Amino acid sequence: MLREERETLLVFSDVHLGSDLNDSGPVVARSPTIDRDLARLIAHYRDAARSAGRWRIVIAGDFIDLAGMSVDPQEGDLVHTELTDEERENGVGGAEDHGRLKLRRVAERHADVFAELGAFVADGHAVTVLHGNHDLELHWDSLKDDLRDLVAAAAPEAERAAARARVEFAPWFFYRKDVVYIEHGHQYDPFCATPFVLSPLSPSDPRRVERGFSATLLRAVVRRTEGMNEHGHEDRGLGSYFGWGVSLGARGALALGARFAKAIAELAKNQRAYGSERARAMARDHERRVAEHAHAARVKVDALRALLRLQARPIATTLHGVFASVMLDRLAVGLLVVLALGVVIVLSQVGVLGGWGFVAAGALLAAWIALHVLLSRGRGDVDPARQMFERVARITELFPAPLVVMGHTHVPVAVRVGGATYINVGSWAEEHPDPRGDLRFNPNPNAYRAARTHLVIRETDDGPDARFYEWDPESGPRLRA
Fold first, then answer.
1. For the residues 412-440, what does the mean pLDDT come to?
2. CA neighbor of 179 nearest in space, from 58, 352, 25
3. Pick from 365, 376, 307: which is nearest to 341 by CA?
4. Suppose 67 and one of 83, 134, 269, 423 were both cysteines; which one would form an S-S bond, judging by CB atoms 3.0 to 4.6 Å apart?
């Protein structure tokens, strides 16, 4: 992670290869142009001038959408870990052999991107892949080995071993002292964070990586509901989801409700496992891994512990968090208020309440509003961008660097924070415009277009020279304002 020689860094994030591999429901197709543009970007920088040493691509997480894809085993597939009921319905999950199967499908689906990465490392350059919340399965060493093989396959056979060694992995962050600190950013998002970043295993089944709140809903609800996209939920309230369900018709609403109920049941089951002895043993094992990681990265273990304290508590680790995150607590209060109002109306009609009926109804409505506001705070901050931004100053105290880079939100940002510059490198994940869109969910949808942004960091005697670009399909890299 820390090296003496200088390199020129090319940083991008959130490619989400494989996001449209879906054997379980309607497919929201990936844009055919986004892979073409990414392949051209890699080819461009493979031959571009660099200030020192070789190029190193740093993919800041979510390179592969192992969490979001839905893949069923086919004849001849080697899958030894028995599928759960959830996996039979939504595709193979987070077990090691399941992840290897998904990775093979991704390499077939995105052969052009893998070929360009292979040519990149064959020319002597290097690649570092950070783990994000959508590719937690990279925790398994066999997946790392498979990905190295798939990338290095494009190199001449005599150079393949050397090319393979130039594909590296960073399970938490990438750091160059006085140059840059890079991580994905999902650990500051309570909907996507994992309790044990260096060992993201499920306490209910350690043979599988953890499936948190967002991944559970993505698999069970989003990927299986026609017209529902992964993005655009930050501004949704309870009313908009009710409207969405009604628009599906009786059968569609019932199917959606059933999928939603199964997802909540799974989240509740996993939540109970966090209080088990197995979870406590996992916490002790993670502390050991933190110490080992500090030694390998040549940083102080106290700095890593302080960094851990900055991370958000995963919302699905408490039962209240599970219910608040999907607004079931507010729904329950709303239903009780409706029932109570019905009782008030009936009692007023028969004269029991006399003139106090309006007072009782007003009191119920006031109580509902107050509880709605109070409970909404329990859901937490749905948009993680602010949480990530607020951590920058403390991160630079722990890991001195003039640049802090993250991804996760898919929204490109470049802004000064004290003595550092915080950059969110946006995304390379783009869905193909669908004429059906999510018109029922959003009456004025806009086709989501990836930012195609990337960061180039050149190390100089005067410090790092960072340039933030977006890729123009016609002219190549274009400096952002």
1. 80
2. 58
3. 365
4. 134
Which amino acid makes up residue 8? T
In sign, the C-alpha dihedral spanning 222, 244, 191, 389 is positive
The pTM (predicted TM-score) of the whole model is: 0.85
201: number of Cβ within 10 Å: 22
Question: Do 368 and 333 form a contact (C-beta atoms < 8 A)?
Answer: yes
What whole-number distance in Å separates Cα of residue 447 and Cα of residue 425? 20
Q: Which helix (H) or strand (E) holds 35?
A: helix 32-47
In eight-state DSSP terms, residue 219 is I
- Collapse the DSSP code of 28 into the 3-class scheme (helix H, G, I; strand E, B; otherwise coil) and give the result: coil
Residue 470 β-bridge partners: 453, 478
The b/e string for 348-363 (b: 16+ C-beta within 10 A; e otherwise) is beeeebeeebeebbee
Tell me the C-alpha distance between 83 and 211, whole Å: 15
d(CA 67, CA 65): 5
Question: Distance between CA atoms of 131 and 143, rounded to whole angstroms?
Answer: 12
Structure tokens belonging to residue 7: 């390199």
Mean pLDDT (whole number) for 154-164: 89
Dihedrals phi, psi of 436, to nearest 5 degrees: -75, -30
Distance between CA atoms of 247 and 453, rounded to whole angstroms? 36
CA distance 429 to 61: 12
Neighbours of 111 (CB within 10 A): 14
Tokens of 25: 């429901």
451: Cβ–Cβ under 8 A, 6 or more apart, which residues? 410, 411, 412, 426, 427, 470
**Alpha carbon of 334 to those of 331, 346, 370: distances in Å?**
5, 19, 12
Phi and psi at 225, nearest 5°, equal -120, 115
DSSP for 70-133 reads B----TT----SPPPHHHHHH---SBHHHHHHHHHHHHHHTHHHHHHHHHHHHTT-EEEEE--T
Residue owning tokens 């931004």: 389
> How would you classify the pairing of strands 167-170 and 403-406?
unpaired
User: How far, in Å, CA of 464 to CA of 470, rounded?
Assistant: 19
What amino acid occupies position 47? Answer: D
Strands 126-130 and 167-170: parallel
User: Integer distance in angstroms from the first to the last C-alpha of the chain?
Assistant: 31
Tokens of 294: 């500090």
Distance separating alpha carbons of residues 132 and 134, to the nearest angstrom: 5
User: Do 211 and 202 form a contact (C-beta atoms < 8 A)?
Assistant: yes
CB atoms within 10 A of CB 239: 8
pLDDT tens-digit readout, 389-408: 999 999 999 999 999 999 99
CA proximity to 12, closest of 61, 68, 65, 67: 61
